[in-house]
C-alpha cells in the first residue's frame, strides 16, 4: 500500500502495473528496488536551464617547464607520502562504455595487435611501476556498477590482478539512478525491475563510504589523499610521485592533471576560476573571446584541459560529502518494456539518464593545482571504436611510447 502511495505521489504508478502478473518473489524484488531507489533525481527534470551569473577568469597552471625545475624535490615528497601509505588510488570503472560498443566492462577490452593487452592490464602495470619505486603497495579502490561488478572482479581475479597484491584492492559498487522516458516516466526493464543506470562518476566518495570493506581500507591505512582516475586512458601515470609532491608541497585541497590544448577549440573542459573558485568550463560554454584570449606573453589564457585524473585530499572529501552536486541529464538508448509488457530495443535515444560528475567536485574546493603533463606521454583515452580517442589512436600512442602490442 505504501509503495502505491509513494508512486502515486511521484506520478509513477505504472511501475507496478504488472504486479498481478508476476510471482510473489518477483513482486518483492520490485518493491525492494523501488524502496531503495533514489527518485529525487527526477526533480532535476523540472529545473530547466540554470541562469549563469558566474564570472569566469583564468587559473594559473603549473607548466611542464616549471615542474621540471623542481622535479627532484616533488618526487622525493611524493615517494615519501606513498611509502607512508598516505595516498590511495581509485579507478572509476562504473561507466557503460557505450561509445566503444563492447558489452563487457571497458577495462576488459583487449587492445592487442599480436599479444593480449587489456585496458585493465595497462593501468595495473603503470601502477606497479610506482609500487616498485616506493617499495610499498598502494591501496587501490575500484568502483564498479551493478551491471559490471561481477564480471570485473572475476576477470581481474582470473588474471591474478596483473601482479598486484590482492590485499590492497577493494571493490565497491556505485549507486544507480532510475532511467526515464522523454516525458519523465520511469522505465521498466522487466515486469519486476525498474530500468536504472550508474549515477555518473561524481558520487564515488559516498559510494565508497557506504561499502564496509572499502571504508575499512580507507581507515586502516589512514589515507590522506585519493588519486582518482578514469578507466580508459591507457597511458596515464597513476599515483605519480611528482604530481603528488607538487600538490602536497603547495598546500592544495585538490589537483588535476591537465594537458595543453592542441588548438583553441579542442573539445575538452578547461580549468578556470568560477567566481574565484577552481572550476572547469566545458568547451561548449567557452566563448570565442575566451577560447582565443592570450596573456602578455601570447600564451592562451584558457588552455589547459582536464583528463580525469585528480588528487583529492581526504579532509576536503569529508567536508563536501553532503553537498549536492549538479545532476546532468543525458539522453541515450535504454532497453525497456512497453505498456503491453513487450521488450523494446530502441534504435534512437529514447530515455534520460541522470549523472553526477567528478569534475563538479573540484568547484567545491577552495583551491586547485592544475598540473601540466605531456599529452603525447600521458593521454591516450579509448572512448570510440575508431577515429578520435579510439582503440587505433591509443595503439599508435602506446607504440610511440615504446610499448609492444
Ligand atoms: P565516460 O564519460 O567516458 O563514460 O566515463 P562511459 O560510461 O565510460 O562511456 P560512454 O559515455 O558510455 O561511452 C569516464 C570515466 O568515468 C567512469 C567510466 O568508467 C570512466 O572511467 N564512470 C562513468 C563511472 O565510473 N561511473 C559512471 O556512472 C560513469
Question: Strand content of the residues, in percent?
Answer: 15-25%
- Return the CATH topology of the largest domain: Spore Coat Polysaccharide Biosynthesis Protein SpsA, Chain A
Number of strands: 19
Give the low-pLDDT segments.
Answer: none
Which ligands does the model contain, each kind named once? uridine 5'-triphosphate
The structural domain count equals 2
Q: Any guess at the CATH architecture of the largest domain?
A: Alpha-Beta Complex
What is the rounded distance between the termini? 59 Å
Number of helices: 12
| CATH homology group of the largest domain | Spore Coat Polysaccharide Biosynthesis Protein SpsA, Chain A
Spatial strand sequence of the major β-sheet: 4-3-2-10-14-11-19
Mean of the pLDDT scores? 95
Cα-atom radius of gyration = 22 Å
Class inferred from helices and paired strands: alpha+beta
Q: Kindly state the percentage of residues in helix.
A: 25-40%
- Main sheet? 7 strands, mixed
Q: What overall geometry do the principal axes of the alpha carbons give?
A: globular
Determine and state the CATH class of the largest domain. Answer: Alpha Beta
Amino acid at each position: 500500500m505504501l509503495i502505491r502511495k509513494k508512486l502515486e505521489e511521484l506520478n509513477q504508478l505504472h511501475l507496478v502495473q504488472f504486479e498481478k502478473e508476476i510471482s510473489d518473489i518477483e513482486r518483492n524484488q520490485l518493491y525492494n528496488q523501488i524502496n531503495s531507489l533514489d527518485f529525487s533525481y527526477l526533480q532535476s527534470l523540472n529545473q530547466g536551464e540554470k541562469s549563469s551569473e558566474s564570472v569566469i577568469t583564468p587559473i594559473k597552471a603549473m607548466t611542464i617547464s616549471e615542474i621540471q625545475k623542481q622535479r627532484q624535490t616533488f618526487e622525493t615528497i611524493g615517494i615519501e607520502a606513498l611509502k607512508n601509505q598516505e595516498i590511495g588510488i581509485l579507478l572509476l570503472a562504473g561507466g557503460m562504455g557505450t561509445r566503444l560498443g563492447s558489452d563487457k566492462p571497458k577495462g576488459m577490452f583487449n587492445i592487442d595487435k599480436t599479444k593480449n593487452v587489456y585496458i585493465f592490464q595497462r593501468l595495473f602495470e603503470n601502477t606497479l611501476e610506482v609500487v616498485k619505486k616506493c617499495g610499498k603497495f598502494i591501496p587501490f579502490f575500484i568502483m564498479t556498477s551493478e551491471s559490471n561488478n561481477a564480471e570485473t572482479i572475476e576477470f581481474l581475479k582470473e588474471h591474478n590482478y596483473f601482479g598486484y597484491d590482492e590485499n590492497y584492492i577493494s571493490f565497491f559498487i556505485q549507486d544507480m539512478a532510475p532511467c526515464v522516458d522523454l516525458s519523465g516516466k520511469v522505465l521498466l526493464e522487466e515486469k519486476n525491475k525498474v530500468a536504472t543506470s550508474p549515477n555518473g562518476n561524481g558520487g564515488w566518495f559516498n559510494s565508497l563510504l557506504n561499502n564496509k570493506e572499502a571504508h575499512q581500507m580507507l581507515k586502516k591505512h589512514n589515507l590522506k589523499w585519493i588519486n582518482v582516475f578514469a578507466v580508459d586512458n591507457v597511458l596515464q601515470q597513476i599515483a605519480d610521485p611528482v604530481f603528488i609532491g607538487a600538490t602536497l608541497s603547495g598546500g592544495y585541497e585538490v589537483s588535476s592533471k591537465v594537458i595543453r590544448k592542441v588548438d583553441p577549440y579542442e573539445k575538452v573542459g578547461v580549468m578556470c576560476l568560477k567566481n574565484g573558485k577552481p572550476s572547469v568550463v566545458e568547451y561548449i560554454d567557452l566563448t570565442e573571446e575566451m577560447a582565443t584570449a592570450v596573456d602578455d606573453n601570447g600564451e592562451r589564457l584558457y588552455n589547459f584541459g582536464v583528463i580525469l585524473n585528480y588528487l583529492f585530499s581526504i579532509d576536503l572529501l569529508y567536508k563536501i560529502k553532503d553537498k549536492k552536486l549538479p545532476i546532468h541529464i543525458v539522453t541515450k538508448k535504454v532497453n525497456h518494456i512497453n505498456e503491453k509488457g513487450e521488450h523494446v530495443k530502441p534504435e534512437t535515444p529514447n530515455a534520460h539518464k541522470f549523472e553526477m560528475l567528478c569534475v563538479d567536485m573540484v568547484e567545491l574546493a577552495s583551491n586547485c593545482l592544475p598540473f601540466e603533463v605531456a599529452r603525447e606521454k600521458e593521454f591516450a583515452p579509448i572512448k570510440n571504436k575508431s577515429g578520435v580517442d579510439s582503440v587505433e589512436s591509443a595503439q599508435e600512442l602506446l607504440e610511440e611510447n615504446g610499448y609492444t602490442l
